[in-house]
Amino acid sequence: MEVKLLGIGCSPRENSNSRMLLEVSLGKAKEKFGDKLSYKIVDLREYDIQHCLACNVCGKTKDTGEFIDCVLKNKDQTQEVLDLMREADGIAVATPVYFGMPSDLFSKFIMRTRVLRHQDFVLANRPVGVMAIAGRRSGGAETTIMSTWLPFIRNGCLIVGNGDKTCQFGTMGWAGARGAIANDEWGMEQGRQTVERIYEIASLVKAGSDALGHANPMTFCYKSGTK
User: Is CATH 2.10.109.10 the classification given to domain 3-212?
Assistant: First the structure.
């Protein structure tokens, strides 16, 4: 059984520390698990991603429940990344820390996953782990990780930490200049652990779903929880 992982790089900078951490971590997992794992990395900065227009009818009509495309589908490249998320069994997100939050690239993109949520939670049960790289110690990595979790929880995803011996919130890297993350031994180790934890849960979910013939039962409703 092959498990497909998707790495999402959220830095606006080329050759960033977060991109390096993501690539090394996925590469180590590939070395360990071999043909059982395949992965792809996308850098959001390389895609034309427009802001959500808040059109108020996203992915599913309110009257008939018919699935519909995002109104921006053919106007930018967001759909390319959404399709890769649909194909993936697990997702690793790597972002720099900006004021204790993920990058604006991540924030702009993740709002566009609303269409998948409204189409009966397309991303349900996919494990997601987060890597956050701050320029200073206690620079907001943990708050960034937690705020990055929230839209994935809304998509029905399964949030994982870094497992192994500590099972912390994810990967908290500490780096300044480009390439400095390589000197953060514990940060690099957490990156490896986070990807392995994503792989472990993705394997269990995929094997269990196949064995049970399980289909996602979640159905989105515009009216639920509203007045």
Answer: no
